[in-house]
Amino acid sequence: MSVWAGLFGFTEVRTTAGITAGIIEVAAFAALAVLALAPAAQPQPSGSAAAGNALPAWPWSGTHGAGWAVAVASVAALVVLGVSVSQAGGPAPAAAGSLKTAEIGGGTVLTNAGGFTLYWFAPDTAAKSNCSGSCAAYWPPLTGIPAAGPGITGRLGTITRSHGVTQATYNGHPLYTYVGDTRPGLSRPNIRLGA
Q1: Of 5, 113, 188, 195, which has the maximum CB count within 10 A?
Q2: Per-residue b/e over 73-97, b at no fewer than 16 CB within 10 Å?
Q3: Running DSSP on this structure, what letter comes out for residue 41?
Q4: 59 in Cβ contact with 35 (< 8 Å)
Q5: Domain definitions of the chain by residue range
Q6: Sorting pLDDT into bands at 50, 70 and 90, what band is 2?
Q7: What's the whole-model pTM score?
Q8: In the prediction, which pLDDT does 72 show?
Q9: Of 126, 94, 102, which is closest to residue 193 (Cα–Cα)?
């Protein structure tokens, strides 16, 4: 899975299902555009020899240049989808290092060594992370062995994730960063980790 800032600045996670959906959307656009441009079949008299041929002529035969416009728009949409997918990078590894506290948005939060806010996931237990797959793509686990930096008064520790990766914990809570935090000093409202 990969992550990039998408339309309107939303953080998006690239998955195989999402890429497949994008290709299907482009194909559906092309098909609907061709159908919209196709001239309607003219009714034939019932006794006519042509009555059995109710198919329209070449779909865009009645509209000059429309076929090329549909083809160009479809190719452009596929190119944009391809460029977006190719430029997507994976979530940056979040190494534990020295944890510290910081004042962000009027509250004290726990941060990694780079100053990025750390979060925990309510369904986790002190021994197991329940955030994997797309959850872990949006909320990358804080990996490695944490060290206490300025302001740390809680208990630091680790758990082992399902793939054998060591994840840092604070007071028994496995820790995560958030892909939408693009710089230090940001914190998601209502999920702030109090130090």
Answers
A1: 195
A2: ebeebeeeeeebeeebeebeebebb
A3: P
A4: yes
A5: 2-87, 94-174
A6: very low
A7: 0.56
A8: 80
A9: 102
